[in-house]
Amino acid sequence: MRFCALLWFVLLFAAMPGLGQHKGRTCATELYQETLEQLQPGIKLQQQQAKEAAQQYLSQKRQGKEIRKATGPVSIPVVFHVVYNTPEQNISDEQIYSQLAVLNADFRRTNTDKVNTPAHFASFAGDAGIEFCLASTAPDGSVTNGITRTQTSSITFSANNNNIKREDRGGAPAWDQTQYLNIWVGNISNDILGWATFPGMSSSSQYDGVVLFYKTVGEPPYNPFPTQFNKGRTATHEIGHWLGLQHIWGTSNESCSDSDFIDDTPNQYAPNYDCPTGTIVSCENGPYGDMWQNYMDYSDDACMNLFTNGQIAYMQAVLHSSRSDILTSVACNGGLLARFEAETDTLIQAGEKVQFRDKSIGVKPNSWLWEFEGGTPATSTERNPTVTYKKPGIYKVSLTIANSQMSSTETQEQYIEVTPNDLTVYPVPASDYIIIEQPAHVTLRQVELLNRLGQVMLSQQVTSRKAELKTTGLPSGLYFLRISSSEGVITRKVTIIK
Q1: Which pLDDT belongs to residue 21?
Q2: Which of 150, 171, 176, 350 might form a disulfide with 164, Cβ 3.0–4.6 angstroms?
Q3: Beta strand pairing call for 147-151 and 66-67
Q4: For 137, phi and psi rounded to 5 degrees?
Q5: DSSP for 20-61?
Q6: 212: which strand partners?
């Protein structure tokens, strides 16, 4: 009886979360996806659009059955945000450098354990052509080592919220996610090793990136923690998600009917844990069985060693579509890149002002030269000038930034469109068509052409500022345009000649 009670206690203790060691890999990306869907309505649509953009890129690159990758490796700037409560959690720079080396080896297939890839899978494995570098320039243009450190009173962080990514909740704020891959490192609850965001986050999102349990970062001797997840492969796995990859078995834990949507990964029933040996056949995927050596399975770090060419093609497609902004980042090379935006609408009425904002990235410039075609002033050396446009037209804007060592210029052709202040109808007289154009900020709703007897000859529903009526076939004469817009109804006389 005592033996049974003791056995029951041992089993209960082992089953309680957080009390034992990790029993197998635990990625919370799908759990975090549920969190995002609650906190950010519309995220599923954005992610679906990112998937469609990646597929479109793949379609454009296909030639027969081949997919051509970009020439040469692409480089992704990384910033590690170490959020720690105890000295042990404040991992060393050397542990982070070790993690960066693991990522570069895994994504370039220079990992020494690639010799463990079975011969029947080796032909599917490839070099992803992706490299990672620690950022050398911070968002404000200052020098950085690509590592931030934040001491927190929070004991643990969870995938059920964004606390590790929020300064007001004990975490660390993200750097511009269009220019950096943000990786948060901290003490994660419930035996979770990490999670990531799928492509499709808004460009202004502060939550995009990867989260890692601090004991998974890097490999020995720099990672001092004796677990089966101490070789840096958790980061490889989670960045695979960040670049659009699903788990190799699909979205359900036990099913042959779902998929990771990658053609050259075998259909697989469920995750594989620990370090499997031999062939594991599921979902009729014999004779070679599950690809448990894949970075997107749940095997221990020591047993992961490949991405397939299909996975690589998809990650490259994501990098050249929804995550393409990061390819222009100069955060690693200490460069300078001019960028700007208008804080107000770029479609304006004559006489309106536009506030311009310098959005340049890289090292700090010390001079700005703006050129405003059609604007007053025509040039400016202010960092964020205000410009008035007095005459209708379509104008370009140019910004050159510089410091003592380098300069960079961005020019946006046809960036500012200036409309008249009143309704415009042309040509006068008309022949085959009539253009009806409202000023900026006014939307057309319906346009009708009436003859002199008041009969409606043409009618068109409109949901834009500008409309075109085809008048081919109408006899010459005097007509009336009845124009309904967001500002009411206006009637204008028009003459049609043949």
Answers
A1: 44
A2: 171
A3: unpaired
A4: -125, 130
A5: S---S--B-HHHHHHHHHHHSTTHHHHHHHHHHHHHHHHHHH
A6: 185, 194
Give 216-260 pLDDT, tens digit per residue: 999 999 999 999 999 999 999 999 999 999 999 998 778 999 889
Question: What does residue 94 show for φ and ψ, rounded to 5 degrees?
Answer: -65, -35
Q: What is the dihedral of CA 188, 190, 196, 200, to 10 degrees?
A: -120
Q: Which two tokens stand for residue 218?
A: 């890097």
Instruction: Please identify which residue in the block is written with the tokens 């006068």.
Output: 428
Q: Show which residues are catalytic.
A: 238
pTM for this entry: 0.82
pLDDT of residue 23: 64
The residue among 246, 235, 230, 248 whose CA lies nearest residue 209 is 235
Per-residue tokens: 37: 């869907």
Three-state DSSP class for residue 97: helix
Burial class (CB in 10 A: 0-12, 13-18, 19+), 232: buried
Q: Report residue 181: phi and psi, to 5°.
A: -90, 110
d(CA 472, CA 469): 9
Burial of 98 by CB count in 10 Å (0-12 exposed, 13-18 middle, 19+ buried)?
Answer: buried
Bridge partners (DSSP) of residue 291 are none
Token pair belonging to 320:
């050249």
- Whether omega for the bond prior to residue 377 falls within 30 degrees of 0, making it cis, is yes
Residue 482 pLDDT more than 80? Answer: yes
Q: Which DSSP letter does residue 96 get? A: H
| Residue 52: count of CB within 10 angstroms of its CB | 12
Local structure of residue 302 (DSSP, 8 states): G
* Tokens read off for 460: 């068109």
Q: How far is 266 from 248, CA to CA, in rounded Å?
A: 8
Question: At 429, phi and psi to the nearest 5?
Answer: -75, 170
Q: Could you tell me how far CA 277 lies from the centroid of its own chain?
A: 37
| Cβ proximity of 408 and 423 under 8 Å | no
Residue 277, CB half-sphere, CA atoms under 13 Å: how many? 0
Are residues 149 and 90 in contact, defined by beta-carbon separation less than 8 angstroms? yes
Give residue 7's pLDDT.
37
Integer Cα distance of 179 and 192 in angstroms: 27
